[in-house]
Design goal:
Elements: H1 2-32, H2 42-52, E1 59-62, H3 72-79, H4 87-97, E2 113-116, H5 118-126, H6 135-146, E3 151-154, E4 158-159, E5 165-175, E6 178-189, E7 192-203
Amino acid sequence: MKDINLFYIISTVCLFSLIHSGCTNAGKTALEKSDVLIIRDTNLIYSFVKSITDTNSVGLLLDIACKIVDEPRDLEDIYSLDTFFNEKDFQLIRDQIGNKSAFFWDAKRLSNYVIINNESIIVLRNFNTGNSTGKNDNFWNNYYQLYQTGFTKMSVPIFNADKKLAIIKVGYYCGGLCGGGDTKIYKFRNGIWAEVYIISSWVS
């Protein structure tokens, strides 16, 4: 019975992956034509992300970038950092946070990550095997039948006016009471991006 359940999980996830692939490509074409995306420098984004992540190991990354702020207090935390940012920086930061266009990570530009799509996570969350004590446990039971490790969610980094400072949110999820993440500021100096400040952290 477990093998049958696993077969249905894999089949459903694969189907959603194919559907998602087509939708993603179409979405990117439309988004690239949007003037709103002019503020996103994709070369800078990928250069930055590759420089701050571990290139010696391969992890799983959710394909759609998460929001850098979830609550109003997150914005307040960022807008209080006047020791790092000036008014021009804050205006640019507001513009970038206000960009509601979805951003999908490109596997070809992040060799240290295997990209998993968000639709597959939704399928696993809703697929009921009947072997769990709760919906969250059910998800992780399904998840670990397909994957051997947890996954990362990462926001699109946002930059200040001179592109020497960046803010990014990264979280790692591995179980109901397993995971953690941070929203951090990095500074570009001596040719590398270095962490200089932790805006917020969480752990479960």
